Amino acid sequence: MRLLSPPTFWRCEPSWTWVSRPLGDHLLWCVLDGIGRLELDGRVKELTPGSCAVFAPGDAPTAGHDPKRRLLVFGMHFEPVDKAWRTADVVPVIRWGEVQDRVLLGALAKAADAAYRRQDALGTRQAELCLEQLLATVWEAAHDSGRTAGDQTVDDVAQAIRQDPGKDWSVAEMAQAAALSRAQFTRRFVARHGRAPAQFLIQARIDRAHQLLAESGMTVTQTAAALGYTDVPYFSRQYKQRTGRSPSDDRPVR
Fold it and tell me: What pTM, to 2 d.p., does this model score?
């Protein structure tokens, strides 16, 4: 990607409206604060923090906002320079999506702005990399339009399990962390990750066990203990069921 304008933040004036002429390039447009309304080709998007759009050349969006809750917008004009990139690879069909991780959104925007303002080649490249990450994030949000804040909390629990599979997790504790009932949590977890929480935990432990056995020099007994197993034969059976190999098969020959 090549930037065609500096990364820019703007707090829209109380009387602000946007009536764009057909765009001559691509535009990333992200709402960081405030509420408003965006329209393109008869489709309307209510704007809140996390609402992001990627526009293609020829698009002519219009927008407005609540003057008492003025929009804070971050944006960049850009163009794909690699022939492997097409507009269809960059611009979602519906043009917009809701980015749930607003901390990441704000951090990437600030990093792009700070890097570009250094006015050196490395800073420009860093800003372009932030742009690519933002585009990927918006694309994911646009193609996962059914994702809710509740889904995000479930995903956060799944990530915590992958990061620390040896912890003594219980489904009740997972549900509490997601601020959901056990039944709601289990239903959403299966929908998001394709397996029940307990089965997800077992797989996370076996995945980590494989890594430890192959890379750390830990014994089978040490690995089992590190991942919360008090019964080594039971661990070995689960490992073989999931991988088709015994744990000792995955330890390097020394």
Answer: 0.63
